[in-house]
Amino acid sequence: MSVEVHPPGAPPVKTGRLRAWFYKRFPIEEFISDQLTGYYAPKNFNFWYYFGVLSLVVLVLQLFTGIFLTMFYKVGEATSFSSVEFIMREVDYGWLIRYLHSTGASAFFLVVYLHMFRALLYGSYKAPRELLWIIGMVVYLALMAEAFFGYVLPWGNMSYWAAQVIVNVFGTIPAIGPGLVEWIRGDYGIADATLNRFFALHVVAVPLALLLLVMLHLVALRRTGSSNPDGIEIKDHLGPDGHPIDGIPFHPYYTIKDTVGVGVFLVVFSIVVFFVPTFGGYLLEPANFEMANPLSTPPEITPSWYLTPYYAILRGIPNQRLGALLLLLAILAYFFLPWLDRSPVKSMRYKGWLSRTFLALFVIAFLGLIYAGQHGVEPIYVLIGRVCTVLYFAYFVLMPWYTRIERVKPAPDRLRFRAHA
Amino acid sequence: MLDRLNVVPLARKTSRVVLAALLGCVLAVQANAASESASSPAAAATSASAADSSSAAASESSAPAEAFGSNWEGWRSGNSVADLDSLQRGARDFLNYCNGCHSLKYMRYSRIGQDLQIPPDLLQKDLVPATRKPTDYIQTPMPEQDAVAWFGKQPPDLSLMARERGTDYIYRFLTTFYVDTSRPTGANNLQLPTTAMPDVLSELEGLKRAVFRTEMVNGTKTQVFDHFEMVASGSLTREQYDGFVRDIVNFLDYVGEPAQAHRRALGVWVVLFLLVFTWIAYLLKKEYWKDVH
Question: Across the interface, which of A88, A260, A275 has its CB nearest the CB of B285?
Fold first, then answer.
C-alpha cells in the first residue's frame, strides 16, 4: 500500500497512497520536515522555553473562544453590556467561553512577559536574532492594542473610563492631538461609534495582523534557529548528517515535551477559570459589572494589570506631555535592545554581576510599576512608581556601559546538557 | 420549607414600600416634634422609639439599651451559595420584600426554579406573579416615573449588585439603617450615607438609632459613629433578622452569577482530567527523551 516519495534534498520517504496523492500536488512533506521533523532545536531548553509555545496555545484559545463570543455578543451602547450578561446566563456554557476569554487575555500577557524575560535572560535578542526580537516586539504592541480594544467591548463602567483615559493619552501629542483623539473616537466622547470601531478592530483587524506577525516571528525563528540557555550557536558544530550535534528534531522531542508544559499550564489556567475567574478583581473588576456611565466615575481608574507598568510611568510624571513621551519611550526601548547590549556573550550564565544586578532591578521595577499602577495617586504609590521608572530606564540607558565594562566568563564551545536518568 | 414560599401580591409590595417611606416621614416628624418638646419628659418618653439620632438624650427606659455595631465595618456576609435552603428562603424573601422596587432584569423566574430545585407548579403558584410567565425576566411592578417621584431616582437593578459591590457591602447596607430625622425618608445608612432607600425592613428588624461621638479629625470636630441602640423592636429578633439578611445576600450572590455552583463542580473534573493527561504526557516525554544524551 505504501509509496515512495522523493523530497528534494532529503532521503526518500515511504508514505501511504493518500499522502502521496497530496504530496504530488502540495509540498506537505517539505512543510513537515521544515517545521517539525527537520527543524533542529538545542537540546538543553529549560523551563523558560515553554512560554513561546504557550503563547501560541493561548492565541488559538483566544481566537476560538472569541469566535463563539462574537456569535452572541451584540455590539452597541444599548446592547453590549446586556449581551455579555446574556452570554453569562443564557448561552449554554457561555460563562465558560467568556471566562476562558477573559482569563485568556491575562494569561496571554503572563506567558508573553515570561517569554520576553527569557529573551532578556539568555540574550535571545542579540545577533543574529535582532529581527526575530523586533517582530516579537511588534506582536507585543499588537497584543496590547488587541487587549485594550477587547477590554472596552463589555461596556462596563471601567471599560468606558479606561477607554477615556487611554484615548486621551493621544491628545497630548502636540498640534494634532485633539483632532487625533476625535478621529479615534469617531465622536466628541467615548460613545457608540467608538465601541463599534473598537469591535471591528478587535475581531478583524488586529487578529489578522497578529496572525501574520506571529507567522513572520516563526519564519524568522526558522532562519536563525532557537537560542538556548548557554547563548551559543548550535549550528557551529554540525554532525556528519549536516544537523547540529547539540540539536534534536523539534518533533517528536519538543512536541512531546511541550505537551507536558501545555498540560501544566492548562491545570493552572483551569483552576483560575473554574475557581477564581475574577481573581479578586484583577481579571474582572467589580466596577465593570456596572454598565458604562459617563456621569459616574469609578473611585479609581486603573487599566488591567498587564498595562499598568506603562500607566504608572505616565502617571508619575507631573507634566502630561512628558509622561506620554516617557510611556512611548518605555515601550520603544525594547526595540533597541539588540544594539544596546555590547556584551561579548549572550547568556546571563556568562555575563557579569552588573548585568545580573540591572536585570534583577528591571524585574523588580516592572513588578513595582504593576503594583503602583493599580493603586490610587496617594504619594507613596506615586513615589514607588517614580523610583521604579528610574530603575526601568536605567536597565536600558546604562546597558551599553555595564555590558562593556563588566568581566564576563567565557561561553562554552558546546551546550551544557545532562540527560535525565 | 417549600410550603412556606407564599409571596405577597405585587400591588401590595409596592404599597408596602410606600407605606414604609410614609412611616419613616411620620416618625421623622414625630421625632422632630419630640425634640422640640423635649422640656416635657412625658413627651420625650412616648416618642422615644423615634428618638433623633443626633440628640444625645437617652430614652428613659428601665433597662439600658444594648449597644452594638461599633465594629460594623468588619461585618461579613458569610454566605454560601451551596446552601440550597438559604437560597430558597432568600428567593422567597427577595420576591416578598425587595422586588416591589428592585428588578433582577437579567434573571428569569424559571431559572431560579431550575437552579434552586423549586418544582414548576410551586414556582408558578408561589413565586411568579399572576400577570407574568415563568420565563419572564424579574421586573419590578413599580413604574419608573413613580419611583423617580417618590425616591428621586429609580431603585437600582440588583442582578449584578453582589458582583459590583460584593456580598459584604449588601449585608452591611441592610444591617446599618438607623433613624435619622434629617433625611426625607426618616432613615439613614452607615454603608451608604444619605441613601435614597427608606428603612423598609424596619417592620422586621425594628428601629435603631445611631449614637455618635465627637472626635477631633484633622483639627476639626467631627461626628464619628459609635454604636447602635434599638429603639423599637420588629417582628424578628436580631438573630432572626441577621439570618434573613444573610439569606437575601446569599440569593443575590447566586443571582450575580447563577452558573457559579455548576462552574465549581465542573472545574473539579476538568482539573482532574488535565492532571491525568499531563501525567501520561510526562511518561511519554520520559520515554521519548531516553534517546537524547
Answer: A260
Structural domains counted in chain A:
2
The DSSP symbol for A156 reads B
Q: Which amino acid is at A204?
A: V
* Whole-structure pTM value: 0.89
Residue of A234, A254, A260 to mutate for B, most B C-beta atoms under 10 A: A260
Q: Report if residue A386 sits inside a domain.
A: yes
- Retrieve residue B249's grid coordinates: 445576600
| 3-state DSSP assignment of residue B289 | helix
The three-state DSSP-derived secondary structure of A40-93 is EEECCCCHHHHHHHHHHHHHHHHHHHHHHHHHHCCCCCCCHHHHHHHHHHCCCC
DSSP notation for A266-279: HHHHHHHHHH-TTG
Please judge whether B278 and A264 are an interchain contact, meaning their C-beta atoms are less than 8 angstroms apart: yes
Inter-chain touch B111–A89, beta carbons under 8 Å: yes
Taking Cα atoms as reference points, which of B89, B79, B98 lies closest to residue B116?
B89
Compare all CA atoms of chain A with the CA of B284 and give the residue at the minimum distance.
A256
Contact A275 B264 (CB under 8 A): yes
**pLDDT tens digits, B39-70:** 333 333 333 333 343 443 444 445 566 889 99
Question: Does A42 lie in the same domain as A26?
Answer: no
Q: ipTM for the complex? A: 0.93
The range of the structural domain enclosing residue B273 comes to 263-293
Average pLDDT of span A189-215: 97
> Residue B163 is nearest to which of A260, A275, A289, comparing CB atoms?
A289
Q: Suggest the residue from B274, B276, B283, B293 to mutate for an interface test with chain A (most A CBs closer than 10 A).
A: B274
CB contact under 8 Å between B159 and A287, yes or no, is no
Number of domains in chain B: 2
Domain that holds residue A9: 1-37
Q: Name the closest residue on chain A to residue B110, using Cα atoms.
A: A90
Distance to chain A for B11, nearest Cα, Å: 28
CA B23 to chain A, closest CA, distance in angstroms equals 32
In a domain, A415, yes or no: no
Question: What does the pLDDT look like over A52-104, one tens digit per residue?
Answer: 999 999 999 999 999 999 999 999 999 999 999 999 999 999 999 999 999 99
- Kindly report the nearest CA distance between residue B62 and chain A, in angstroms: 46
Residues A215 and A80 in one domain: yes
Is A271 in Cβ contact with B267 (below 8 Å)? yes
pLDDT tens-digit series, residues B194-209: 999 999 999 999 999 9
Residues B245 and B270 in one domain: no
Residue linked to cell 537560542: A227
Which ranges constitute the DSSP H helices of A204-307? 206-224, 255-275
Query: Is residue A253 situated within a structural domain?
Result: yes
Q: Do B160 and A270 touch (CB under 8 A)?
A: no
Cα–Cα dist A94/A171, whole Å? 38
Whether residue B152 is found in the same domain as residue B280: no
Contact A267 B292 (CB under 8 A): no
Sign of the dihedral defined by the CA atoms of residues A291, A295, A296, A302, in that order: positive
Is B259 in the A-facing interface, judged by CB distances under 8 Å? Answer: yes
Facing A256 at nearest CB: one of B164, B263, B285? B285
Residue B274 and residue B201 share a domain: no
Residues A159 and A250 in one domain: yes
Q: Residue A421 domain-assigned? A: no
Shared domain check, B97 and B51: yes
